[in-house]
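A quick aside before the break. I want you to see a complete sequence-to-structure record at least once, exactly as it would be stored in a machine-readable document. Don't worry about memorizing anything.
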Amino acid sequence: MARKIQALRGMNDILPGQSSVWQYLENVVADVAKSYGYQQIRFPIVENTDLFKRGVGEATDIVEKEMYTFEDRNGESLTLRPEGTASCVRAADQAGLLFNQVQRLWYTGPMFRYERPQKGRYRQFYQIGLECFGMSSADIDAELIVLLARLWKKLGLLDHVELQLNTIGESSEREAYKAALVEYLTGFKDQLDEDSQRRLSTNPMRILDSKDVNTQAILDKAPSLEEFIGEESRAHFDRLQSLLTANGVSFVINRRLVRGLDYYSKTVFEWVTTHLGAQATVCGGGRYDGLVELLGGKPTPAVGFAMGIERLVLLLETLDLIPDEAKPSVDLFIVSFGEDAEVRSFVLAEEIRSHINDLVVMRHCGGGNFKNQMKKANNSGARFTVILGQDEVDQGICQIKDMQTGEQETCSFDSVVAYINTKF
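That is the input. The structure line, written in tokens, reads:
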């Protein structure tokens, strides 16, 4: 007997019972994005490795130890995309969409990172992202966050997530802060956790994200990034806060929030929850005004965010916020007995689908006795079952059974569509 082949660790199947919830979430996001003028963009899952080294940053955890990178037959280094922003910038710039233009784009699809799989975190995971290009003012930062607040409200999540904000200023301001931070932390190097010791020489601001208790205690007396923020960056952040307040969006300032990617500047934000244990962040983003130029394009202001679909689905399930319409269901089941009845049931099913939109109609195929077919109708969860046999075909009628009450009515072929329409 051949050995069964299993899915790779951390790369999961999305089964039929789960996919309907994913579709529900994706449809809600698509509707909200469309209402703000965002258009969908699609790009490859494989890119030139340099795109992520330059865009994400060589000193980030993603590039240093998480990317799936390989050489193709021509010796070119390729990488399965670990995130979407760099790919979106590459695609939009290559198509000439960015220079002196405003673009509102959104995307969805799989991303890949080699890290330890755990609940809510996988090696192949799916993200939805929104990116806006061509506007440098704080109002577009605010609009993206307000859009997210609207999305959370539609999903029933608004009371279960918290918005955290920070500003990390311009690159020159961060460089001055990094120097002061490194100078301070060098005196405590032996007391820092292992990751923070490594980051001290590669990406010191990521130390602010450390979950190590001792490291956080050392950081309590470290220089504050806020002290190095210039007047323009501060004004941008103040404007963002006032716009959010005017729109009724509550937030907290988290001065240690820096995000994990090199391309961010000024605004950074995360939506976090207390309902998923260690996997607290459900959405993160910010401004990245220098990324387009870093990747070879013209200077272009930009801001965006990404959210993990697995984590959001898990949150909806945890809070029991999945509506009935998002769960797999059958509205109408059709059973038939005899060759003529099978043909007529086939035609009837297509007539119903043609005249009643969004009705889930399942027809039994493959024959079988009455008892077995009715058992399948019951197991389908259908609200009504249409029953057709040779006698019904001869008389031009069908039986329609209410599967909840057990009541059964007779209906002519000519009126069955109208009758069913009254029931839904």
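Two observations worth writing down. Residues 16-35 form the longest helix (20 residues). The chain is about 40% helix and 20% strand. We'll return to this after the break.
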